[in-house]
Amino acid sequence: MILSEQRFKQINVIENGCIDDVQGFYTTGTHCGLKRKKPDLGLIYCENVAEAAGVFTTNQIQAAPLRLTKSLIETTGTLQAVVVNSGNANACTGKQGMIDAKEMQKCVAEKFNLNETDVAVSSTGVIGEQLPMDKVRAGINTLSVAESKGSFAEAILTTDTTTKEICVEILIDEQPVRIAGVAKGSGMIHPNMATMLSFLATDATMKGSELQQLLRDTTNETFNRITVDGDSSTNDMVLALASNKVQHKQLNQNHPQWGVFQEAFQLCATELAKMIARDGEGATKLIEVQVVGAKSNDDAGKIAKTIVGSDLVKTAVFGKDGNWGRIICAIGYSGCTISPDLIDIAIGPYATLKESEPCGTNDKEITAYMTEEETIVISVNLHVGTGVGKAWGCDLSYDYVRINAGYRT
């Protein structure tokens, strides 16, 4: 779905907004000792049991917390709290991993007087190491939703260089409704619901079934359109919660303002996805690939992600080299329907290929563009249909190797 200009004008982005700015929700975070100094344990809390939806990694190796949370979403479709730790993925940890995930769930339920089945668990960090549950238990015991906002976004980070948050406001039946999100991720990003985590919250009134379909559709066009290094994690998940705090007519696809809500929701997810791509480990540039004229929207999205996922394209961007041959090569192996003689390619404002004929663009102009701009836009027109799609990624630098070579040290 491409955001319409008219509806986009109806979406107000809240400056420095976060999940705490959504009615009914509170977040907090603390340092419990999983990481050396920084916050490593966080909580999202809702005043009431919220409608919930989730989308999860398609990696067949799935961490215990993810399997536990996925089961909750599929069974009850409601949540009141989400506890997240960083620094340890609790993945590939055998039977003890699930025991520990359930203990985290139980500790939060007891601390905040909740039903255990309304507490989701998420973990991110090093794979294959047991959680030091003495530290986790002590950390959960210190959590308080009365603390200042902001620490949750820090507590879920691993190799990220910055927090990633957004909050928007729209009017539904003349009532202000907010949607907010937070995310983490900078490496091992290639979602197919990527390590990436994202949590979205709204005070809109709606059923979990509508939220689940919206989340699935939105994820396919946002979080599933980013790539940093081609690796899908064992822990990737996106959760969405609706507190039903705003008194308007129940939102569903028959509501006259469903489109506005849908686009505001997608805007949050899109911006979070771009923040993840921009913060790729060692990245110096955000790459945005725009594809039009594909046989279908699915083809357009797949081709865009293939281009942005190409190591050769990524290294060319890092080297500020407008090597469009790498782009057309990625289009060719995307597996999608194309006409090899009809392809247009542009890097920024500079056309490099027109109907598969080189345009003779000055390489120095493209190098200057790639040097000056923080976001490098690659545009493709396939001229075989009406499909459109976008994908986001980052360049591949020397620092990516340095960061990941020493990940455990």
TrEMBL record:
It is an enzyme of class 2 (transferase). The gene is argJ. GO terms for biological process: L-arginine biosynthetic process; ornithine biosynthetic process. InterPro entries: Arg_biosynth_ArgJ (IPR002813), ArgJ-like_dom_sf (IPR016117), ArgJ_beta_C (IPR042195). Substrate binds at residues 158, 184, 195, 281, 404, 409. The lineage of its organism: Bacteria, Bacillati, Bacillota, Bacilli, Bacillales. It is found in: Cytoplasm. Catalyzes two activities which are involved in the cyclic version of arginine biosynthesis: the synthesis of N-acetylglutamate from glutamate and acetyl-CoA as the acetyl donor, and of ornithine by transacetylation between N(2)-acetylornithine and glutamate. One of its GO terms (molecular function) is L-glutamate N-acetyltransferase activity. HAMAP family: ArgJ. Its EC number is 2.3.1.35, 2.3.1.1. One of its GO terms (cellular component) is cytoplasm. It holds the Pfam family ArgJ. Heterotetramer of two alpha and two beta chains. Belongs to the ArgJ family. The record marks 124-125 as: Involved in the stabilization of negative charge on the oxyanion by the formation of the oxyanion hole. Gene3D superfamilies: arginine biosynthesis bifunctional protein suprefamily, ArgJ beta chain, C-terminal domain, L-amino peptidase D-ALA esterase/amidase. It comes from Shouchella lehensis. It catalyses: N(2)-acetyl-L-ornithine + L-glutamate = N-acetyl-L-glutamate + L-ornithine; L-glutamate + acetyl-CoA = N-acetyl-L-glutamate + CoA + H(+). Keywords: Acyltransferase, Amino-acid biosynthesis, Arginine biosynthesis, Autocatalytic cleavage, Cytoplasm, Multifunctional enzyme, Transferase. The keyword Transferase applies. This is Arginine biosynthesis bifunctional protein ArgJ. The active site is at 195 (nucleophile). The record marks 194-195 as: Cleavage. Pathway: Amino-acid biosynthesis; L-arginine biosynthesis; L-ornithine and N-acetyl-L-glutamate from L-glutamate and N(2)-acetyl-L-ornithine (cyclic): step 1/1; Amino-acid biosynthesis; L-arginine biosynthesis; N(2)-acetyl-L-ornithine from L-glutamate: step 1/4.
